[in-house]
Predict the 3D structure of the following.
Amino acid sequence: MAKALAATNSSIDTFVQLIGDGAWAAQSVPLLGFAQAGADGSFDDSGFPSGKGWDKAALPSAHDEHAYALEISGDQMKPVYRDGDIIVVSPGTPIRRGDRVVVKTRSGEVMVKELKRRTAKTLELQSLNPSQPDRTLAAGDVEWIARIVWASQ
């Protein structure tokens, strides 16, 4: 459990809300491989799943009807996420500094980072893997941003 809380940068209170009063609440969410997430047509302009290629996965409820899951492929996000891990993304959940997020740029790049700072003009993102560079994006270059609320570990 500690790994899951650390991977999503969530508190134990958030975890308890996800599991309710001891019963595991499941939600069927759309699931797509992370490598396919940058393909045209995978998301609409608001960052919601669209198009073909999505499977379904039963995962802890994110209390967001637009939540979806992405399966991590490769080692670019180690040590936080490993190949085969599944993350649940909730476009409707508010985002705060320190949250792990999925960001899509207007050029079509999709990335998982930690939100360092967000202003009206820029988005500062910290890489999860220390060997990968941090990113600073102009607000106008960001198509959408959504919070990661759960991760399998």
Observations:
- The longest strand covers residues 142-151.
